[in-house]
Amino acid sequence: MEFQYLIGSLGNTLVIWIGSVLFAAVLSVFVAAGRRSRFTVLRMLTRIWVALVRGLPPLVWMILLYFGVGFGWLGESPMFTTVVALGLINSAYFGDSIYAGLNSLPKGQWEALTALAVPKWQAYTRVIIPQAFPIIIASSTAYSISLVKNTAIGSIIAANELMFYGHNIVQAGANGLQVFFLIGLIYLALTIPLGMLARWIEGRSVIAAVR
Predict the structure, then answer these.
(1) Among 3.40.50.300, 1.10.3720.10, 3.40.190.80, 3.40.50.970, what is the CATH number of 2-210?
(2) Do the beta carbons of residue 4 and residue 74 sit within 8 Å?
(3) Which residues of the chain have pLDDT under 70?
(4) In sequence order, what DSSP letters do the residues of 62-113 get, joined into one string?
(5) Which of 3, 62, 146, 189 would you label with 53, given CA atoms 20 to 30 Å apart?
(6) Cα separation, 132 vs 97, whole angstroms
């Protein structure tokens, strides 16, 4: 019975995870662009943002957004707040992945593209991004897998995800060791296939980049 109840909550965990990944992916483009901007102010702001994210625990961000930020609409939905919090946090990590991938290319390639007067959008889409993609995808997928586990912190604000349901079952009298053992198995069932998929995508992207 406990297992069926936990499986029923798995859908909410997946919704939080997918929503957080998509939100973080969109924001990460702006983070990476800010870090590579020619404007000093933008570079400083994005560096401060990345430093704040790395310096504060995700749980602190969750509590600040849910209880501290004066947006009533945000605090009305724990699941939505969890998506926003995890998306904001991981935008810094995803942005760093993009930034590191772009910076990994030899400086001579940038100079050659500039000397040939290749339009910037063509330089990025046809030369830079295809070469940087394996590096970007490797670290980004690792962060995405970690994000599956981080959805559990949504339970602190009563988001209806897997860990929150587990706490409810234990409070109702179920065996805590069995319940959280099952939760651990469910997380493993999610993260192990995702890790295998990430390695496959990374391998395919490396082959495509070599070609």
Answers:
(1) 1.10.3720.10
(2) no
(3) 1-3, 69-76, 109-111, 113-115, 117-123, 125-126, 202, 204-211
(4) HHIIIIIS--HHHHT-HHHHHHHHHHHHHHHHHHHHHHHHHHTS-HHHHHHH
(5) 189
(6) 10
